[in-house]
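step 3/5: co-fold with 0O2
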Amino acid sequence: MKTVKKEIEKIRNEMNQDQYYLHCQYIMGILAVKIKIIGEQLVLRNKRDVIQNVSQRIKTPESIYAKMLRKNLEPEFSLAKEKLNDLIGIRIVCLFLDDVYEIAEMLKKQKDIKVIKEKDYIVKPKKNGYMSLHLIVEIPVCMGDKVEMKKVEIQIRTTAMDFWSVLEYQLLYKKNVKGADKVGKELKSYSDEIAALDQKMLKLRNRIESI
Ligand code: 0O2
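step 4/5: write tokens
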């Protein structure tokens, strides 16, 4: 137990060095402005609100440590920077299914963002029912005469998917507790209902817009 604490402290110390948090804040600041502009362009284009909420986080030392072990990797921060795509995470929540893909397309068009990976858990949800569109992007950070590319995971999902995943995240920490299996199955069935409802709401919105 002591070693776990020590390893996590080591990661924390490494994160505190090398202006890591400052670089993360710089990237999150750039992306926040970009997403705000995209949001305003979408309001003008679609004549309605599109982006409902944007949140950002820097992965904690505890979460880095746990994820490195899950991936059978040494829990070293220098290795985590190389291997983990979500040390910086941004979540965009929107109302409708087509908004997810419209936001993703607009992000992909940004000249200073390079999409290196796309995972569509909406077309192909995870086994437990998790749905979201993930873009792993690289953003250049200029430091003196050097330019370093930093990875960010951008999760884009509907309000309904977000509401589901918050609950599922709580269950994750109770996986081995009695009753968790039953709740997991029920949650999976709600994910199917959410997928169907998102489709229905989109169709209805299109009908309303065409009246
Ligand atoms: P936390 O605590 O949110 O940081 P990769 O190397 O990119 O192929 P990775 O990073 O495991 O593999 O990718 P994946 O599966 O797309 O997961 C990235 C993040 O998406 C997770 O980070 C979660 O935030 C979210 N996510 C993925 N699957 C689920 C799920 O089943 N339920 C919920 N609620 N969220 C999920 P972390 O590090 O797991 O967690």
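step 5/5: annotate
Residues 59, 63, 67, 85-86, 119, 126, 128, 130, 134, 165, 168-169 surround 0O2 (CB under 6 Å).
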